[in-house]
Automatic annotation (TrEMBL):
The keyword 4Fe-4S does not apply. It comes from Oncorhynchus tshawytscha (Chinook salmon). It comes from the Eukaryota. Keywords: Glycoprotein, Secreted, Signal. Transmembrane segments: none annotated. The keyword Glycoprotein applies. GO terms for cellular component: extracellular region. The lineage of its organism: Eukaryota, Metazoa, Chordata, Craniata, Vertebrata. It is found in: Secreted. Residues 19-106, 120-192 form the WxxW domain. This is WxxW domain-containing protein.
Length: 209
């Protein structure tokens, strides 16, 4: 499984090291007990598809992307075990953390040959289908990117399945569902019979080395 939009850097045998995009979970919280928590645990909980045990991490302040974190004069945790954590009450007189970003390096199995690496995303589900004749389940590529998932906008292929029946092919469910690399997954209630299912989707992307 892979997190699309990751960029291959080098290989370890049958694995490829890839860096995520820069991740920012939002502005630091205020007050002496506040700060900026971009921990690995919080990033995964927020829906980002990163590995839980990265090979390495890099951190930077959003305001000063060209500076090393050691040049900022703040006491910040930045390591692969924790991620990034900054506490306001550890920052001297200023008592306020900068707005930090983090990116992580993960190992991903290599599945393609030559100069490209094919990688599958995790299964993605944006939530329950909406009700009513105009409702349905919209897991389109556009919607998934808008929801904050770091995937490529032009996947090589997609796979779709019903959450209730993960072992069945989409063609076995008896529903009229769009599932292709151009659109993603779209299911309209008014195009179905009596039975409706919750769908999920995944796909591989090609990443240049």
């Amino acid at each position: 499984l892979l997190h699309p939009l990751l960029q291959p850097q080098h290989r370890h045998g049958e694995e490829t090291c890839v860096w995520s995009d820069w991740i920012n979970l939002g502005q630091p919280t205020s007050g002496s007990e506040g700060g900026d928590n971009e921990s690995i645990k919080n990033i995964i909980a927020a829906g980002y598809h990163i590995c839980s045990a990265p090979e390495a991490v890099e951190c930077r302040a959003k305001q000063y992307p060209g500076l090393q974190i050691s040049q900022l004069g703040q006491d910040v945790t930045c390591n692969p075990s924790v991620g990034l954590v900054c506490q306001n009450n550890e920052q001297g007189l200023q008592q306020k953390c900068f707005d930090y970003e983090i990116r992580v390096k993960c190992l991903t199995p290599t599945k393609c040959s030559g100069e490209e690496t094919c990688v599958w995303s995790d299964w993605i589900n944006l939530g329950q289908p909406t009700s009513g004749s105009e409702g349905g389940d919209n897991e389109s590529i556009k919607n998934i990117i808008a929801a904050g998932y770091h995937i490529c906008s032009a996947p090589e292929a997609v796979e779709c399945r019903a959450k209730q029946y993960p072992g069945l092919q989409i063609s076995q469910l008896g529903q009229d569902v769009t599932c292709n690399p151009s659109v993603g997954l779209v299911c309209q209630n008014n195009e179905q019979g009596l039975q409706r299912y919750l769908q999920s989707i995944r796909w591989p992307c090609l990443s240049k080395q």
